[in-house]
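[scheduler] slot 2 assigned
[scheduler] job type: sequence-to-structure, two independent chains
[scheduler] chain ordering preserved from manifest
[runner] begin chain α
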Amino acid sequence: MEPKLIEMRNIMKRRRTKSIGPLNLSIPEGYIIALVGPNGSGKTTILNMIMQTVIPDEGEISWRGNVYSKGLPLKLRQQIGYVPEQLNNEEKHMTVDGAAAFRSLWYDNWDGYYFDELLSKFGVPRGTKLYKMSKGERRKFEIAAALAPRPKLLLLDEPSSGLDPFAWKLMIDQLRDCLKDGNTTIVLSTHIVEEIRRLADYLILVHHGKFLGMVEKDGLLDNWKECWVTGDGSMIGELPGIVSWRQETAATTSFITTECLEVETILQSAGVLIHQTRSLELDEVLNLWIQGNKPAGVQE
């Protein structure tokens, strides 16, 4: 794991109808981390607790080892860009330029030239008041405004909501560009599987407010597979990471494993041939994980 930007230790947040936590997780610096889970899992609350706009009832959050019990200092807040799921109504009667001028007062590093470049690329109408924009246009403005101060931490809550396919592809490209210097970290909450597949380095899975673990995405997808073997399938149930298996024919057995690389080595040494494999889709993997099938190497 790379140097830790943020650590959450024994974090709990109690709501009227549900609780979130305990959360014990570390966010590495310089990567894209996807927060995934069904609606109502607590992803937005986690983002707000990172920014300390929501204060946990228990536990502590540290930034590079420092705990700020009285709120994040201004210099640290100026390093954070945020695109909320629910857009801010306070600026709705402002034009793009008016809202940008207002936001630029918050950030010492606001890059107006970069902001103008992003508006042009996204095709955002500059003279239109925000409340008169379409959802997609407003979302493009929010993304451009979050990127303009060139933040060290970018928090994105369903950022592609309302974007057309062309704007979505441009957003993906811009987020990748943010990581080129190695000093930017992105925490992304999204339901879009293709977004996770294209962007994420690590996945954090939450379900009903519970932290189910954090895992490296590529290793997860490399290891979760459906396999078909020819020959004696009696040993399949004893193999590591077996989620399910069935006898397809008298000579063929199929199974799903969370540890395909290790399973392949064991079967090869036993003289059992794997004649076909299928990588599971990311949504299949996440559903099986929620059901209690833990990935290899998961951090809990």
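[runner] end chain α
[runner] begin chain β
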Amino acid sequence: MRQFVLIGHDIPTEPDFSLDDLAGGAGRLDALCRSITAAFVTSHGIRETVRVHLVAQDELTVTFDGSDLRRLNPDERSTAALVRTALEHRDEAIGALPAEPSPGIEVYRRGFEGTLEELAADGPVVHLHEDGEAVVDVGPDALEDGVFVLSDHHDFTAEEADLLEAVADRRLRLGPELLHADQAITVAHHFLDTDGYERF
């Protein structure tokens, strides 16, 4: 299982946002929707062994599970509609119990730290960062069942960076150029799909 944690610093925690203004009024939810799409969508299919955890303002986490996910299309608007539907059910999440607004989607009342704590036992926590160790020097075996952590258009806050310093097993960079989160997800998938670029 590959997992991606996406931090949305500015995205809404309430469903009262317009699907026609994802870049402005919804706190760059457009970019995060591209990342969700990149994590799951293949040509004519969905990656079933992937989960994405979208952390909204360190307050809520919306989890997408590819094994059950339905109605995810390769466009930002339909993905944002799934996020909005999830937020419409936020009040049904009580304590550690999630709301389940639709197949493959759960909403939890926990922020970044709680999400990382929950996922830390699933596999190595990998902080993707331009100052990290080169992924080709680590190899794919060390990243099996990895939990990859990315930020939105903002840098990680000092508090988030300190948490990652304490929790992350590795800090990795995927290449010589700075990448958007959706691009980084695509590169990470390709690296692991090809056993570190060894198998095609």
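[runner] end chain β
[qc] chain β: The helical segments are 29-40, 76-88, 112-119, 135-138, 158-167, 181-193.
[scheduler] slot 2 released
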